[in-house]
């Protein structure tokens, strides 16, 4: 089973930025769709972003409406890694953020497209 390790969380003021990183333990999974979801205190898991590899060096991405225009997802297959750049952070972005692997090669569009995830990293945005 692939192991995913997230890093980059922390405390930031509203309007600030953070970059989350996720390293996968197996190169095979760099071919799969990957993404991020979050869980806010007392709330259900919420899809944030998905990405899949296309062609030689391309990628297809999908972002939740709540983060569109503020967050960007990217991946580096050579490093078996996926990233979430979060800008213009808001207090409501406070959550534990999880890196996840999709069921297959498709672009993840919702929580049901993920089959495994890491331990998560805490992001706290102060007002």
Put the structure in a nutshell.
The protein has about 130 residues and is an all-beta fold. The protein has strands spanning about 5, 10-15, 20-25, 35-40, 45-55, 60-65, 70-75, 80-85, 95-100, 115, 120-125.
Could you please describe the fold and organization of this structure?
The chain is an all-beta fold and 127 residues long. It has strands at 4-7, 10-13, 18-24, 34-39, 45-54, 58-63, 71-76, 81-86, 95-102, 114-117, 121-126. Strands 2, 4, 5, 6, 9, 10 and 11 form a seven-stranded mixed beta sheet that branches. The chain has a four-stranded antiparallel beta sheet with strand order 1-3-8-7, with no helix packed on it. The model has no long low-confidence stretch (mean pLDDT 92). Helices cover 0% and strands 53% of the residues. The termini are far apart.
């Amino acid at each position: 089973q692939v192991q995913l390790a997230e890093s980059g969380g922390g405390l930031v003021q509203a309007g600030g930025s953070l970059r989350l990183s996720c390293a996968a333990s197996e190169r095979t999974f760099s071919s799969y769709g990957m993404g991020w979801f979050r869980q806010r205190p007392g709330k259900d898991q919420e899809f944030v972003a998905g990405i899949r590899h296309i062609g030689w060096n391309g990628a297809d991405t999908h972002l939740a409406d709540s983060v569109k225009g503020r967050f960007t997802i990217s991946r580096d297959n050579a490093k078996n890694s996926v990233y979430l750049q979060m800008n213009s952070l808001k207090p409501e972005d406070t959550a534990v953020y999880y890196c996840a692997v999709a069921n297959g090669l498709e672009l993840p569009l919702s929580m049901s497209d993920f089959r495994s995830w890491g331990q998560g990293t805490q992001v706290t945005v102060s007002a």
